[in-house]
Structure formats: C-alpha cells, structure tokens
Amino acid sequence: MATDKPTIDKVASLAKVSKTTISRYLNGRFEFMSDETRKRIRAVIEELDYRPNNLARGLKSNRSGLIGVLVADIGSPFSSILVKGVGDTCKDRGYQTIIANTDNDPQKEREYIRSLIDNRVEGLIVNITGQNDDFLLELKDEGIPIVVADRPMETLSLDTVTSNNAEMTYRTIRHLYEQGFERVAFITQQISQVRTRYVRHQTFLKACRELYGVDGEKWVYFIDPSDVGSLAQELQAFLEMEDGPAAAFAVNGVTLLSLVKAIRELDLVMPDDLGVTGYDDWGWASLIPPGITTISQPSYNVGVQSALRLIQRIKDNRPKPKLIELPSELIVRGSSVRNVK
Amino acid sequence: MATDKPTIDKVASLAKVSKTTISRYLNGRFEFMSDETRKRIRAVIEELDYRPNNLARGLKSNRSGLIGVLVADIGSPFSSILVKGVGDTCKDRGYQTIIANTDNDPQKEREYIRSLIDNRVEGLIVNITGQNDDFLLELKDEGIPIVVADRPMETLSLDTVTSNNAEMTYRTIRHLYEQGFERVAFITQQISQVRTRYVRHQTFLKACRELYGVDGEKWVYFIDPSDVGSLAQELQAFLEMEDGPAAAFAVNGVTLLSLVKAIRELDLVMPDDLGVTGYDDWGWASLIPPGITTISQPSYNVGVQSALRLIQRIKDNRPKPKLIELPSELIVRGSSVRNVK
DNA sequence: TTGTAGGCGTTATCAA
DNA sequence: TTGATAACGCCTACAA
After folding, report:
1. Domain final residue, candidates A59, A84, A101
2. Is the dihedral of CA B283, B284, B286, B292 positive or negative?
3. Residue B102 falls within a domain, yes or no?
C-alpha cells in the first residue's frame, strides 16, 4: 500500500483523546461522552477517512462480521439466487458473506468449511453434499451456528430451510395422472446422498403405488445430464415399452434441460408424444412451445430465511433445531395438459 | 464457542518448544529445524486439530488471503459463472473470495468496496456499474490491486478482462445482413454507464452505416426487460414500419429472454416474421424452435483470467494496466437463417 | 537449531 | 467523562 491507512492511534492523537475514547465512539457508546469530543472525533475521522480494521476488531472481539455460504453449484440459478437472498439479508444486518462453491464434492466441502472457520466466520449456511453429516455435527457441537439450506440432513439435527418437496412431487404426479397419462418416467441424476433427490424419488414411488398401483422403479431413469444422446435412447425405450399416453418428470432443472434437449433430438411433440413436467422454473420454461409445466422453487426466500435463522442463532445458539419448509409453486403449462378427451 | 480453539501458545507448550518454532513450522520454514521437533510439532497439531487463526495472521502480516469480488447481478448466469471461474482459480492459489452483489447500484458498489477493504481483502475484481470510476482510481492510487471484469472503464486505466464485444456485434449484424434481412432492431436496456452496452450500441450504429447505409438510431429500442407487454408493442410497431425481412438483436441475455417472450406473445414465427439474434447463450437458446442464434461469452474464462491477473498484481503491483480481450463465439441457429431464396 | 520480546489495530477492564 | 494498560493470536527481528 502506498499511503498507509490511518489507525485508531492516529485518530486519537489528532483528536487529542485516548484511543479508548475513539473506540467508544466507533462502537456508538456516547453515553458518557461530551458533545464536544464527539464532534472533534467525528471531524478527525472524516478528515482522515478513517475506517477501523476488521481483522483487528475480529481478533479482539471474536466477531468477524463474516458469514460463510457453501453451495453445491453456484453456476445453477437455484444456487445463485439463493446466494443473492442470503447476501441481501446479511448486508442489511451488517454481515458480509463469503461464498464457496463445492461442486458437490464432499472433500471440497470439508476444505472450504475449514478455511471459512479459519477466517472466523460467525456462522455457516450450507447447501450440503450430504456426505459430511458427522463433520457438520461436530462443528455444531463446537458451537458453530449452522443452517442447512435446501437439502436437509436425514436426521434434521440442524436448522433447515427447504421447500415442500414431497408435497409438490406428489401433486405433480397426481396432475399427470388426472390428465390421463398412463405412465410416468422419473428422470433423475444419481441420488448420491442428495436428500432432495431422495425425497422426490421416494415420493414418486409412493405416488406410483397409490395412483397407478404399480412399482414405479421400472419407470425410473438414472441419467447423466451432459449426455443427451443416452437420455434420448432411454426415453425412446420408455416410449416403446407400452402404448397409451406417457409423461416424464425431471428431478431438477439441470435434468429438465437435458430432457427437453432429448425430446427435441427425438422430434417428439409435447404433450402428445410425451407429457413433460419437472423441477425448476428458470425463465425459459414458458418459452418452449407449448410451455413446460414446472415446479418453481422459492430459492431467494430460502436464502433469506436461512440467513435470518442463522443470524438469530449467532445471537443465541441454544434453541432446538427447527425445520422451515417454504412452499413451491406448480406452474401448469401446455406440456402436461392433454386437450384430447 | 463451547470448546475453545487451541492457539499457537497451547501447541507450543504441549510440544515443549516456543511459539516461534511453531510459527516457523506453520510457515514451512523447516530449514534449521531438527527432524525431531518437527515431528513432535506435527503430532501435537494433529492431536489438537489446531488451525491458525487467519484474523491474527492477517493482522500481523497484512495478508488476509481474501479477495473481493463485486458483480452487478449474481442472479444472472453471466455473473455466477464468472464468479465460479474466479472462485476455482483463487482456491487453487490459497485465496478465498468474498462476493458481493451490487444490483447495478453505484452506491451499493461503493459501500461494498469499502466494507471489503475494511476486511483487508488483498485485491478486488469488479464488474463495475460504471459510475464509480473516480473512486476506483483513488483506490488504485492507494495501492489496492484491482481488476475490472467484463465491463471496461472508458479510460482503461485499470487491468481489464473482457470479451471482444465490438467484433462480435459487428459480425452478428453482418450475418443478418448477409442473410438478406433488410433491417435490424437493436433491443437494449438503458445504456446507463455500462460500457459493454455502450460498445455494442455504437458498433450496431457503425454496422448500420457501413452495411445498410442508414442511421441505425431509428432501429434502437430501449426497453425494460420485465415489461414484456411494452416490448411486444414496440416490436409490432417496428414490424409495421416497412415491408421486407426484419430481424432483431438483443443486447444481452436478459433482454433476449424478454424478446423471445414478446415474440411468443405476438405469435411471430422465427425467422420468417422476425430473425432473432442476441447476446448470451444460457442453455435454453437451442431449445426454442428453430433454435436461437446467440453470442456465447467466455464468462468462466473471464473469471479465471481476472483472478490470475489479480493474483499477479497482488505480488507485484507495478505493471502498467493491461487489456485482455477473450473471444466469444457466434452460434448460428435457425432463428437467423433464411431458407427462402 | 531454538527462544525472547515487541508489535499488528482493536476492545475491555480498571482506575482516575 | 476520560485514560492507562493489558489482552486477542500470530509473526519476526534479534539474540542465544
């Protein structure tokens, strides 16, 4: 740095008071301060454009003003909008967010968490990979405030903010059923340990049993979203399996995108050849004729609520873990509506 | 925190050496350290799961290991992918990124920058709003390493990583011209002070002069992307203005999305009623029949290069500012290809 | 090869 | 109403 930043000592000497008084001023404790000194201090601070050093503050006070956020994939709209919700909320309350991207890699997740803690973040908002539960619980036991965003832990032993996955999945399958589709392909990435995928998968099976009276497993397709060709093949096979109106449900936005690509590759017409539904309304779903039926998640609000809960917990870490489930919205469009009778 | 974290003192006492030695160990200066003490220290550190406090480190050494990143809108794929590029690159080199979202608001931009500096970030990567040039230059003069990502400053007085906007815009208009479109609407948000918008706008005008021999201003439409209805009206007016094949160019991804929505609202057929091109290939452009012609920007790489340049500059802040222009790609799809002769 | 001591910029506890 | 002074956890001359 060319020009060295002014420190509290410099302010003190120019204002002709001790640094204790400056510190009081900085922390808004004017109770016993004469108006005169207060004004003098303010003048000096403005003059120097003095700003306290947060590292020093944090070191002394154990309050860094930093909140760590881990997301699985910042490149996906879900994560980035969630991050925005967190950021806006934290800013308003005097916190800065440090964001790290785990790429769904449990090892990266651990490394980043360690590093965030080294930077003395006051709390953590985690979109978990699902493979570090024990590690997270240790941290909790060490007293670090943690909120789990979007993907719950199986045990729910941490504060969790998510959306009503089971309900919406069921409702969507029922919608397809009521529209007269006679079978539904469930298109998903490997479940890995991702709890939302798991819940959606299980709910799908349940809906198949209760509505179609079948074991849904035969309609489940595990795919790699980047390999549209294979997906197209699988889809073809699904369609040829039986006659009658068929539909598909994509487990998340990335998968839905692949699904629509595969449909285009096969030159299928929605909903006649295949009814289409799935997770994540990312702006383009309405544009693809005849409009894709999607479940729109409250990502921004998940971010906001996670941040609020975390900040609460930073102030008082005693409360029992709480589960907050925010509602998603099923947006029905042409791709799942059969106009034939 | 329930269990207090171990400090360097604790490690020192358990390892029966002074904290100087521990500090040496932590910083990898084993040159004059006996193998035995080294092992002993390692054992104690593992045993305690000791990790140094970054705040204390940064306070003393003036190296926080933090890099600040400001983006205009983290919710847009452009920003979030850029952020990912920055994050990946920084992580590999031992830096953490603090990300802040300015919402294109110059005041927020200033506030965030101040706050990042309070946290002693070692450098800044900024997707500038374009209205804080003086402020940024002051910071530069104070010795803070800064890289401008995507949106250049008019004066180029800072390191800049961006893409070849002028070239790609010109090439796209020429493509439309060569396809026999007789006029081109330029759909844009308010330029504000956003340099990329400005450059694209100016290039459009230039292309109009050189190719069509007209003043392109009459074909420029300033729109609010969230107001699809108005855009549809304007588009209608543009189409009715004259006969002959007409096309449109959207200045960025957000605008392109609105444009396509408006086209759907008006029930226009691409490319017969309107040829469509524009910035940002965000995954869905290929899905909308007949496929939308887009310019795909190297966002990830802009992030990577920005980070690399910044880290270089953190090490040596003397070099003259450099402009790095990365190539974008024009992806021609059905929306701009006239198959009639 | 290792240790002593002082300081980084704050905050907090006393005492005045 | 204000000020000395001692931390916070680490790094680094300098000394041994």
Report:
1. A59
2. negative
3. yes
Asked whether residue A202 falls in the same domain as residue A269, the answer is yes
Question: Nearest-CA neighbor of A252 among A210, A208, A192, A305?
Answer: A192
Residue B88 and residue A75: Cβ atoms within 8 Å? no
| Distance, CA of A52 to C1' of D2, in Å | 21
Whether A204 and A214 have beta carbons less than 8 Å apart is answered as no
Q: Using one digit for the tens of pLDDT, what is the confidence trace for A191-232?
A: 999 999 999 999 999 999 999 999 999 999 999 999 999 999
What is residue B340's predicted lDDT score, i.e. its pLDDT?
57
Indicate whether A251 and A261 sit together in one domain. yes
The pLDDT assigned to A1 comes to 39
Which residues of chain B neighbour A257 with C-beta distances below 8 Å?
Answer: 283-284, 287
Same domain, B194 and B293: yes
Quick one: B180 and B155 in the same domain? no
Which A residues in the span 190-229 are in contact with B, Cβ-Cβ below 8 Å?
none
B303 and B293 within one domain: no
Domain boundary among the residues B44, B59, B74 is at B59
Query: B-chain residues within 8 Å CB-CB of A105?
Result: none
Q: Is residue A44 part of a domain?
A: yes
Give the CATH number, domain containing residue A96.
Answer: 3.40.50.2300
- Within this chain, do residues A186 and A245 fall inside the same structural domain, yes or no? yes
Q: What is the pLDDT of residues B41-61, one digit of tens each?
A: 999 999 999 999 999 999 998
Q: Tell me what percent of the residues of chain B surpass a pLDDT of 90.
A: 90
Chain B residues whose CB is inside 8 A of the A65 CB are: 119
Domain extent, residue A55, equals 8-59
User: Given CB atoms, is A52 within the 8 Å cutoff of chain B?
Assistant: yes
Average pLDDT, chain A: 94
Q: Enter the tokens of residue B38.
A: 């080294």
Mean pLDDT of B179-190: 97
The alpha-carbon gap from A341 to the nearest alpha carbon of chain B, in Å, equals: 26
- Mean pLDDT over A141-149 rounds to 95
Question: How many structural domains compose chain A?
Answer: 3
pLDDT value for B2: 38
Give the model's pLDDT for residue A295. 98
Tokens of A150: 């979007």
pLDDT of residue A2: 39
**Angle of the B165-178 helix axis to the B195-207 helix axis, nearest 10:** 30
Write the Ramachandran bin of B240: left for phi over 0, alpha for psi from -120 to 50, otherwise beta. alpha
- Enumerate residues 132 to 151 of chain A having a beta carbon within 8 A of any beta carbon in chain B: 141-144
A-B Cβ pairs (cutoff 8 Å, strict):
153
Contact B224, B250 (CB under 8 A): no
Does A181 map to a domain? yes
Q: A27 and A13 in contact (C-beta within 8 Å)?
A: no
CATH number of the domain encompassing residue A25: 1.10.260.40
Assign 3-state DSSP to chain B and report helix, strand, coil percentages, each to 5.
45, 15, 35
**Phi, psi torsion values for A32, nearest 5 degrees:** -115, 35
Enumerate residues 6+ apart whose C-beta is below 8 A from A136: A113, A126, A128, A146, A148, A153, A158
In a domain, A318, yes or no: yes
Alpha-carbon distance of B145 to B123, in angstroms, equals 5
State the pTM of this model: 0.93
Q: A181 and A292: one domain?
A: yes
- Tell me the per-residue pLDDT of A24-61, one tens digit each, with 9 for 90 and over: 999 988 888 888 899 999 999 999 999 999 999 999 98
**B304 and B256 fall within a common domain:** no
